[in-house]
Amino acid sequence: MLINDDVTTVGIDLGGTKLAAAPMKGSVFVESEIIKEATPSGTSEDIIDTMCKMVKKIQETHSIAAVGVSTAGMVNEKGEMIGSCGNIPSWKGTKVKKELEAKLSIPVIVENDANCSAYGEYAIGSGKDFKSMIMVTLGTGIGGGIIINDQIWRGAHFGGGEIGHLKLHSNRTRRCTCGSWDCWEAYASGTGLNNTARTYLADPNINNYSLMDKYNHGDADAIEVISVWHDHVAQGIASLINSFDPEAVVIGGGLAQFINYPNLNKKLKARVVDALKPYINVIEGKLANNSGMVGAACLANVELANLKMQVA
Ligand SMILES: [Zn+2]
């Protein structure tokens, strides 16, 4: 890990409803320094302007060497948004790096949010002792970021790490948000867990929090649902371990807190190939919602020497 402790960078996290930004001196992240703004609903230029305003506010008290932006959607090597960008339609096609550099006059790096989350945990979180790790974010869907030998694996076409769409079986039981059938995400995500709960419990209003409440009170059906959900989570993680043999799998997202790690490990042991069973290492992330912002700031720090500005 090559973080330069003398350099201060800013990490920006662009979400569908809010923007968050914070400075990081080297690997030091101070949660109270986060500033937030609502994500503008208008044009991509409005979003760029709001990002600039946030960086300039941080520059009033810090000398900033570079900016890292964590964003939904696929990002190419020039920091341009390719493909669709979730719930920010105006963002598609935006030359984020070029436009920010023109206004800020400092180097900018732009990276997919799942990759940034993985990089954040790798740089200063639960993955900081490892060179190769996989981040699994269990939220409404499933996000993934793959770090191999200290580098983000972006894929040949900037679409790597879409682990939520690993296929669990070919029975055509559940449709996934991607349009295909029986993806991991359709079972192990928050949406998947809720769908499983609805098939086991007679309560049509069950949500994942009321389910966990029943589970914690010893409800037999809820206990079975959570056990089945652990099987679903283990199926995907076992495939990742069998494919990549990482030093660790780090779990983040809102559902990480619902996992019983000894129970998950038992279910993984039954699915991972014999040669890798001794090395199963699944741990909870440390950075919660800040992993993307932290990862973007750390990436800007580590990549600083290689960052060429597109606008002089
Ligand atoms: Zn899918």
Question: So what's the CATH class of the largest domain?
Answer: Alpha Beta
In total, the number of strands is 13
Which ranges are low-confidence, i.e. pLDDT below 50, for 5 or more consecutive residues?
none
Number of helices: 9
Fourth CATH level, the homologous superfamily of the largest domain: ATPase, nucleotide binding domain
Strand content: 15-25%
Topology as a string of helices (H) and strands (E): EEEEHEEEHEHEEEHHHHEHEH
What is the correct CATH architecture of the largest domain?
2-Layer Sandwich
Give me the secondary-structure category: alpha/beta
Q: Radius of gyration over alpha carbons?
A: 20 Å
Provide the CATH topology of the largest domain.
Answer: Nucleotidyltransferase, domain 5
Average pLDDT, all residues: 96
* Bound ligands, named by name, code or SMILES: zinc ion
Percentage of residues assigned to helices? 25-40%
How far is it from the N-terminal to the C-terminal residue, by CA? 29 Å
- The number of distinct structural domains comes to 2
Task: Please give the largest β-sheet.
Answer: 6 strands, mixed
Shape: globular
